Amino acid sequence: MAEAVFHPPRRKRRVFESYESPFPVDVGGKDFRICQAEIINNNVIVRNPEDIEQLYNKGYFGKGILSRSRPVYSISDPSLVTKWQGANINLPIIASKKYQCHVQWAKSILQEQGFDDCSATKILENYTKPLELPFLKEDGAEQTSNSCNRMGPNTENTELSRQSSTAIGNVVALSPENQNEGYKKACLEGDPAFDPVAIHGSKEQEEGDLKEVAEVSCQKHGFLMHCGCKESTEQGSCEMIKSKERAPEYVLVQEEEEGSLCPEDDAAHAQENIVKKEKLVCRRNPFRIFEYLQLSLEEAFFLVYALGCLSIYYGEEPLTILKLWEVFSEVKPNFKTTYMAYHYFRSKGWVPKVGLKYGTDLLLYRKGPPFYHASYSVIAELVDDNFEGSLRRPLSWKSLSGLNRTTVNASKELMLCYLIRPSEMTEKEMSTPECMKRIKVQELIVSRWVASRERSEQDEL
Question: Does the predicted TM-score (pTM) go above 0.85?
Fold first, then answer.
């Protein structure tokens, strides 16, 4: 049986990032940390932003659930960010229509929780009312200003109202006086729709409503907002993540208002002079969308078993290696086969990713997807010493030819990876990851034989 010959991979033309490390481990042990993940709906999810950054930047593990690959999703509109870049405010900027969609989503969640239409509307109106916004100079110092006019596209007058308030990082905080006023007003008016989503004066009440807002946001997407970890060395960091997720998200909404520069008695002439003024208004986002890192089962087990830099929780209980091997095998019947192939190619320096898009088990990248195109599409099969066994996907010549044609059209090569186990190995031995020590690997490259081309090459010889 012929041995596979690896051809040099095809490099991407534009590379916008630097290569950090092949694995999320530190040789010296200084920056080594154990990341945390949790199993949600048979998927392994990482929610800690620091863990997400480390796992993806060092080894390109996982995929952002809201992004194509790298978890960089933001609700901010890039065109509006470019338009208002002179404002020097580090907050997401979205259009008014998009913000109204978030309000409608939050309203539908409140209605599902038993609130009537009138109560849900009052709650959201109180929660999304305009807030004060700090105005920063170019050097970063804070400055008080009532308004700042800026000419936008098509010489339309755009207005950004900025008033003084306190800000920490990217979060604009309300003053205690404003919070107390909102709370007292709602109580004095006897608003029956007053809900934890609205503003509270006390600290305990504010923490409660922030938690409710986070729960409203997560129920739409089916994500769990609890940290999932108990007493541990990273309990402080977990509490910090919980507070960040429960804290309200502040956004800048671009809103339009009509004004007349030269009002006159003639209605037609006045209509011609009416221009649209655009301004940024700071509001709370009632429906938050979080970007998480989703790991494949093979990636998650490799991080736990091979690198020891990940701890996976189910509920509040961390799972052992043997338990993960058992659980993942139940969730994905062919997990043992695909993981052994994943482990083999990772140990050879390749970056395997899920090959579902091309009808295979794995795609092999050199260094990572940002630098090179995938070189090989891999189908993994577990066989015995005689290359016999119950194949997971038996291929006919017709299906094999079609799969190879699809792979070649994408500038890749089709590889068959046979995982050879001894004939005397029992199922009990396969119940632990230690069985990989006795597994041998054989790679085969499938290539299309062209009669005319082969004949001409033989004539030249």
Answer: no
